[in-house]
Every structure is written in C-alpha cells, then in structure tokens.
Amino acid sequence: MRRIFFAGVMLLTLWCAVACDDGYDLDDQARDSVTRITTQQSFLKDGYGRYLFLHGANVSGSTKVPTTESPVSYVGKPFPLEEADWNFRMLRDMGFNVLRLLIIWDAIEPDASGQYDEEYLEYLEKVVAKARDYGIYVFLDMHQDIFSHWLRKYYYDRTDQPSMIPDAQPGSEAQPPLNNVIQGDGAPRWVVQDCLPDKNVYSPEWGLPRSMVSDPRNTNDLLAPFFWGLDTFLSIDANRCFATFFAGRQVYPNYKINGKNVQDYLQDSFANAWVQVARRVKYYDNVLGYDIINEPLGLFIMFDVYAFLYREAKVTTNGALSDEQVEDAVDRGIAELEPSGIPPDTAARLKELLLTRANLPRNAADFAAAGMPLDAAADDPYRPDLNGVLALNGNFNRDYLQPFFEKIGAAIQEEDPAAIIIIEPSLGFDDTGGVFGVGSYITPMLAPAGIRQLIYGPHFYTDVYPIVAVYPEPREFTVDEVKLRDYTEGILGAINLAAFSLGNPPVILGEFGTYFNFGGIETAEAMHYAPSAQILDNYYRVLEENMINSTVWNYSPENTETWGDNWNQEDFSVLGPDRKPRGLDAYNRVSPRFTSGRLVSFKYNSPLAYYEPRPGVPTPEREFTMEMMGLETNAPTEIFVPAQQYPDGFYVYLSDGRCAFDNERHILYWYPSDDDPNVNHDIRIRPPYPGYGDTDWNYFFLGDEVMEGAQ
Questions:
Q1: CATH (residue range 4-33+590-708)
Q2: Which residue of 188, 444, 463, 483 could cross-link 501, Cys pair, CB 3.0 to 4.6 Å?
Q3: pLDDT digit string, tens, across residues 305-317
Q4: DSSP class of residue 401?
Q5: Spans of all domains in the chain
C-alpha cells in the first residue's frame, strides 16, 4: 500500500544526542547539519563523523575591484548586505554548498600597516554568518593577481563604450581618451610603495602610459592592451613586488623598515591582517578554512633578464644596450630554466614575448625606472642583490613559499586553533614535473611544518583564455568542438602534488571555469551559452569520477554585458548580466553533501553528456547513483537534489533504510539501516521517463509530496 503525505511533518531518525524528540523537524535538521569540519587523512569530516563533499563556487570576481577608491573601501563586495539573502538563496538553489569567499588585503589594511578597516571586517563577518543561515560553508581566500590593484595601466580600447575609469584623461586626435584598464588586485597601495621604493605610487599620473607621464617613476610597466595574465611574468614591477614580499631577505638584504628586513615587515603585516579576519569569523561553524594566498608568482624570468642586462649595461658606455645584447640576455634567462625541463616550443614562445612585448631596458634611464640605477652605491639598501635575484627560480616553492605558509599558517592557528589551512602552488614550475616534464631537478614543496590541518587547493583551466595579442578577442567554440574533450589528465595533474610530496591531504580544486562570451557576448547569448555549459560539464564529469572537491570560478552578481565580471573584462560568472544562472545544467547537479559512510563512487548523468541510444531503454539523463562503504554514524547522508532537474518529481531506490526530503532546501536525507561494517550502501535517483517505469522504487518525491513504494 502506498500513501501520500507532506514531508515537512515526517519524523526523522535524529542525531544520537537528540533521539526521539518529537518536536524535531526538517528546519532543525538543516540547522544542526552544519558543524566545524576537521581533516582526517585525505578526507573532510564533520562533527557527527560524516564525510563532507564540496561542490561550490568562488564569490566573486568583482571583489577584486574596490567599492570606492577615495577612500579605499571594499564594503559591499561581493554584494551589499541587503542583497545577501537573495544571493545566498540563489547560490543554494544552484547547488553550491561551499563558497571560496574572496577577501583582499587592500580591503583589510588599506592605509598603513596595523590600521584595519573595522567596517569591512564587520561586513565580512556578517556575510559569513548569513552563509551559515543557508547551510553554506565558507573558506576565505586572500586573493591577489599581479600582486595588487595598484599595479595598473590605462589604455584606449578602440571602442566608444563609456569609460570605467573614474578620472579618465581627456583625449585628442593623437591620444584618444583612456577608457579601459589592465589591473591586478591584492596588496594595499602602501605595500606596493614599500616594494617599489624608487617609484611614486601615489602620483596622480600613476597608471598612465609612460609616454604621458612627466617622470617614468610616476607609473608602472604593466602591458596594455594585452592579456592581463602575462603581466605577472612580463612586468618587472610585478616581479619586484613578489620578490620583495617572498624573498626580500635575499634580494634586498639591506632594505629595512622599522628595523625589520622588508620581507619580514611585509609578511608580518600580512599575517596580522589574516589574524584580524580569523578573530572575526572563527566562531562560525560554517568556516571551513583559510586559503592563505591566491596564485603567488614563483617564476621570475623578467627579473632574471634584467639582472643579466644590468651586468651588461654596467660595462657598456652610457649603459646603452644593443639588440644583440638584449637578445643574448633573454637567451641566458631562458637557459636558466632549461634544467627544469622547459620544452623548446615554450622557450621559443617565451623568447618571442620577451623580445616583442616586454619593456626590456635599453639604457640607464630604463634601469633607473625599474629601481636598478646603474650608478647605485654598493650599500644602497634599495639595490637588488643580483645573485639573489638569479637564485629565485630554483626551488621557489620549497625555499620561499613553504616557509611563508608555515609562518602565516601558524599565526592563523594561534588565533583559531580549529583552523584548516589551505595552500596553493605558485605560478611557475610544477614540483612534480607535470608541466615541464622533468621533476628530478626541482626540490618539491613539503607539507608546511606545524600546520595541524591542511588542504591542498590547486587551480586548473583549459579551453579558456584568448590568443595572446595586443587586443585579445574572445575565442570561438561550437558545442561539437568541445563536447567530447577529456580533462582527466589536466585535472589529475593539477592535484598531483598532494600525493607527490605533501602527505596526501584533502584536495579541493579551488578554481576552474570558462568564459561565457565565446564569439562575443551577443553570439554567446544567442547560443544560450551552450559551448560554455559543455566545457563546464566536461570538468564536472572528471571531478565526479574522481570524487574531487571543487569551487567553480565564479559567481558575480555585478556581471554586465559590457564589462563582464568588472575586472579586466573577464566574463566567467555563472550568474549572468540578467541575474539569472548561465550554463545551469552543467553545475546544477545531484550531489552528495554529507555521507554517513565513505564514498566509493557517485555519478550524475548530466543532460549535456553524450549518450548512445539503447533500444527499449530510456536515455538515463538526470539519473544519479552513489555507493558508500559501511556506516560510521547514525547521522543522515545528505544529497542535494535540484528542483530544476526534476520538475516532474524523482524516484529514489535504496539498498536499505529510509528517506525524507526537504523541498525548500532541496536536500534528500537518507538513513541507511544496515550497520554491518562490511556492507556497502547504494542509492539511485531518477526522473520519470515517458513510456517507461518500474515497480521497485522506494520513494517518489514531487515538491512537498512523497509516495512510498517498496519498503
């Protein structure tokens, strides 16, 4: 006999501590589901002993740009508090149970070391608290790209679109108005000034093309218009900032601030900024951890080439360098990378970029503008140690990044003893040899000493970035072109360091994603973003097959057709300019949240996947299967079941136990009954297939209604 009733009044099998409490309902279940997470070998576990699986999003790309610059404030990033409920409800309904929440050093400590923006910290705490209300975990990511928002270059982008620059320069026939900008994000302005003491970072000309400034020290050398990602490697100013921050004791041994070497002074400030954040959020059970720094630079090819050229210029009349001398220095710089296995085609492309795009020095004035005056005294504290510069590219992760993680992680743990520390590899050589093919030369980074709980959080992108050009245009893809591409090798290569030398901690793929403006935004919209959705589905297929935690890049409620995510015109946001999800079928998937036994496997048959027809058998679109090993807790297994994918309801097939469904939060609770540790438990979910059915299902859910079948 089958019976229909409302799931909201079903009594659940409760936590052991509150069993048989008749007043306990689905709202209580959702509230109590969120506990502080711990690591156990390569797994994440909650306070009830369940395994946690993370399916999340980065929030958000628009956080990279301050709300206001005068004064500097990031309050309202990623969204105003009055819009928090709308956004968290959207994120929850899209299926995300964790956020990689971007925070910015510039937001925390904008004006000077030790002076914190308490309004921003209060805002940040409220965002974390609100995420808790929606059952969403958060790990905070101290984000940076090209080191700082204050490394930037204005340019004219050859369009008539309104300027996004607050104080755009007046134009002329010879010099059109500057209406766009290449920029970084991360460190405060005062940090950039400390890293570039020869520059006037506070100049009103800062960021203008060099041809428009009264003194070359009043601006920086970022390349624009150009693909911003290469500026990290091809800007000497960016190279110097990273080198000062990570290796100041070696590169600038005589440079001190307040009695400390510049490296220690800046890293102490960075650690204290993290402490301010941890002090605010450590009390919230949904705080998963702290991602210490995003994508730090670990390859200083530009600084290397400058060092070689500096030595040439010192013995050249007036410091003037010929084309032959410049090319020779580039060859020597690239040769420094050869023991690490850089492929010949990569070396050739790098040489071309350095010779045709980078601002390589040709005379004494160029060296002076880069903080390397040829007449600098030997004891000048701002003069770099060239031997120290040339040593940067050898074993950067082990020698510089690992000690940095140890220092910052210890500071966070002292404030929040339950902290999970998340670390990333640097942009540069792969410690495993996965990129350049030779791992034996590199001494790999080890698990940072003293870190009690560790997660490895690498990133991976493919089929994304525009072709390198002066005015890069979006790439073009068709669905058929990308539908059957396999990203397995790339994703597994990205996470390989965890097992290679870090002791096999839990892994989360912290960033992956795709542009949503392939072929131009109008073309993409007309295609309903189909190629982008297909690329995302390719990622998720591999992530599920290998049970890899992940956070997609990104969710931005500020996304617009003109400016994308409002930072370097990137357009990755899964939330579109109409504030509706884009590519929803790719990531709005049935997904486990917590499992009461160890996951063995799970699979969701996306409607975007490729299926071969089978006579008499329906195509298994939107079917989900999962298997777990044993039963380690009486707390329920939780599975997200999106309403979007099951408008006509869904069947549930169980190996054992019973279910209840929270229709508001889209959570299926499963309580397996067989506690034999040698027994595996499995579940299958599928929609009704037209003209096809069977009779061995256990439950059918449609909204708040439930029908029981075979028990």
A1: 2.60.40.1180
A2: 444
A3: 999 999 999 998 8
A4: I
A5: 4-33+590-708, 52-148+255-298+394-587, 152-254+299-390
